[in-house]
Write the structure tokens for this entry.
Amino acid sequence: MSPNGKSILISGGLVYDDDGDTNHPVRADISIVGDTIVSVDPCDGGELRAARADVVIDAADRLILPGLVNAHYHSHDALLKGCFETIPRETWLLNALPPNYKPRSLAELRARTLLGAVECLRAGITVVQDMVTLSPMDSESVEVVLAAYAEAGIRCVFSLQVGDVHGAKVTPFWEEVLPQAVHGDLSGVVSSDEEADLLVARLAAFHRRFEGHCDTVTWGLAPSSPERATPAFLRAVARLSDERDLPVFTHVYESRATTLIARQKFSQWGGSLVSYLDAHGVLGPRTSLAHGVWMQASEIEKIAKAEASVVLNPVGNLKTRSGVAPISQYIEAGVNVGLGCDNNSCSDAQNLFQVMKAFAGLPAVSNVVSARPTARDALFAATVGGARAIGLANRVGRIRPGFKADLTLLALSDFAFVPLNSAARQVVFSECGRSVDTVLVNGRIVVSGGKVLTVNEAALRHEIEVLMQELRPEISAVEARTAELRPHLHEALRRTWEASLEVNRYVSN
Ligand SMILES: [Zn+2]
């Protein structure tokens, strides 16, 4: 590892630049001082530069990408991968979200945060936007999660997911078909009985207390979704975002149900969650809307005009049977698009190679005319677009002087790149994460030879095994409760799928 202030030369690799030749990137030397890229120069043998660098990485057999940006992620269910089949989002939420579990130990919070970070780093992801639900949401828990991010060395845009609309109200027909006794328990997020202003004041206090503790952690705000947020809460979020220049992350139109609730309960805003956000000050360049599967054309235009971002999570959307987002429409409308891997219990991998391939391929269900997205578009979304979506534009996402030294080096000896016909296309269509060899975050080498240097991987595996002895029975209990409710949940879904809606995101129905 090279401590900040030292210099690193990455010598002679193929350096990917979205503005350059994305099939055949040029060979260049990257010089890093401290946390920043200071020069990217065509190769001249590099002997002079190498003599001056503290650390030299020979990258002759490497393709160097800007570190991949996981622009939508939740660390809270990192231990739940592989627990569930493909189930509808509204059912899945009941199995996945922390408020449905007993409070977890601080040891578990630390281990799950580290696990998610390690998985990301091993897959070439250098930054995550973690929209974490902590239940309870207290200082100790926040501190443990942030310390785990500092320990792992991955960059994190941290946000606490909250809402102030409770239980069954946020999902169509739940109030009618589910037993009254469980309505209050069905909160998809950490809700609060606090007044909106008090809830936002708590978020502001957490931010004030912990900001700046770690160079690689910045903050954002995460009202879980518009339907889970009152106007007063959104206005308070907008004020805080303005005052402190914080990005705002929220889920919009993930599923048919979240779209129908807009038509049922937001008629004052034309049945549009985008208009609802806009009316309360939460639609602008700092806003990032996760999913946007069921967005209408007029709303896409509105998002483009507001210079807000959309973060697409195509793999998670498939696993939760939520449909396919209008990917080509977003690109053609000029919306800034980022990509996310979403939860580990709904995708179930922190792997942007999978996501890029799905993003590039899924428009096939509705679009045979447009050439977009291309492989370059997919890589752009996973780097430049994602960086902008999470408030890090012009700081990460490109390999340019002045950018932070967040880099992913892929081994070109991997058969995904043999023969090397096109860097962009083979990253998106051939690679699955196997070739990730070296990863730098903020000028620090955190992965080398495919192994994470900052975390003892074997010890983490062992620790998780022990923790799972307590968590497993809890998962079974939560699933058993969901199973009991299944006839009611199915009835709500049946009505949701029968209701007429002017937009369709399934291939046919
Ligand atoms: Zn999410």
